[in-house]
Amino acid sequence: MILGDEHAMEVLGSRLARVLTGALVVYLCGDLGTGKTTLVRAILRALGYRGPVKSPTYTLVEIYRCAGQRVYHFDLYRLADPEELEFMGARDYFGENALCLVEWPERGRGSLPAADVMVTLEYWQSGRRCHLQAVEEGGRAALAGFQPPAGVGVRRNGA
């Protein structure tokens, strides 16, 4: 999907919030500034959260409760070693019936559960390009109901 501006990212987040329900692990991949936190903020807003949404770069995780669901937002950019996740008890977060949104998952490799859905954001001309991939069965079930924003071209299963 091609996202021309921040509003398009917000619409995408709103559409994703409709299908990312229950216990799912979502990896958010992309370079600095590609919109990972903006997308998380849009998902949380669509779920009804009205407070401030900040990147948990220094705290590693922010906890939200919205729409009767727990949402954990991880930002692993400053993680020095994946074992730090064990020390902070991250396994407990992933063990709950919660939506876990993980920025910079490659920094936690080996200490994170597998992703159900992978979202990759990259710079594309003056906007962003977004690739959604269902990795596990929970992700396939979630993305089966995904409706892309109007006017956005989507390829499914590499077609």
Walkthrough of the structure:
A seven-stranded mixed sheet has the order 1-7-6-2-5-4-3. The chain has five helices and seven strands. The mean pLDDT is 88. A hairpin with a 2-residue loop joins strand 6 (117-124) and strand 7. Helix 1 (6-19) packs across helix 2 (36-46). It is of the alpha/beta class. It is globular and about 45 Å long.
CATH architecture: 3-Layer(aba) Sandwich
Helix content: 25-40%
Major beta sheet summary? 7 strands, mixed
Mean pLDDT: 88
For the record, what is the CATH homologous superfamily label? Answer: P-loop containing nucleotide triphosphate hydrolases
Computed structural class: alpha/beta
**Radius of gyration, CA atoms, in whole angstroms:** 15 Å
**How many beta-strand runs?**
7
Q: Can you tell me the number of structural domains?
A: 1
